[in-house]
Amino acid sequence: MTHRITTLLTAEHLRRSLAEDARTGLSSSPKWLPPKYFYDRRGSELFEEITRLPEYYPTRTERALLTEHAREIAEASGAEVLLELGSGSSEKTRLLLDALTQAGQLTTYVPVDVSASALTQAMDALAEERPGLALHGVVADFDQHLAQLPSPGRRLIALLGSTLGNYDRPGRERFLQSVAAAMQPGEGLLLGLDLVKDPGQLVAAYDDAAGVTAEFNLNALHVLNQSLGADFDTDGFRHLALWNADEERIEMRLVAQDSTRVELRELDLVIKFDEGEELLTELSCKFRRTSAARELTDAGFRNLRWWTDPEEAYALVLAKH
Ligand code: AVJ
User: CA 47 to CA 181: how far, in whole Å?
Assistant: First the structure.
């Protein structure tokens, strides 16, 4: 079967957008960086490790929900193509691929990721496992390339892992509207959403005992060192995960342990951190059923279906356009 990769986001293009975002974010007060740059080879590996941590319940809860409901989802979607945004290792995707195959109409899987290394690795494994499935991988940034993604048949577009939570509310509105604009009538959107719950459990999921999330967070600085010739001393920063109760989100930050000065050679930029100053590296918004449904219908989605686990820790939502 055909097996190919389209690159909409080249390494150079990614580096340029990192340069732009880093210049803006590090010159702002408070300082911030967008989380998509976590996922270089090392970052993608660390994220896979996070998904296996005992404290990180989202992955296994989502997997259990997919195991239980993939059939219904496949049938309701009527999809010929599974297009997955932020596909990473495509590990949980297999449950959907199986169900769509059994529903009888799947022809093509389109994994989309910013990480070329994660994408190639996932596709090699899938090509071997499923010789009958056409694979069309796309290296892309779904903040930029939604309208250019392949559409070789009626699609189910999946955004799993609660990746939607990386956007704040205005960001989600923009994102959902551009997904809707890129969809044909009758196509489906499947979202995995992490739900609001006990803050202790939430914080533990982002501050694990083994320190993997801390390493993942600090990897953002390695990415800046490597791609932009920065000279961050990663030992000089500490990982912080906190629950922002007003915004109902986890925020990951890096805290400067001393006042320090960092040079970003490629940007011709020097930035200063005060002792204790924080750099915001990731938002992970948590959802509630009513407001999530509202955001989807506001963006033009309809026929919402909702599945959750008995503890209501996590949800899958299927919506039609
Ligand atoms: C991939 C964005 C959904 O927010 O839970 C995990 C990333 N960051 N631990 C999340 C992440 C720290 C993850 N998302």
Answer: 30
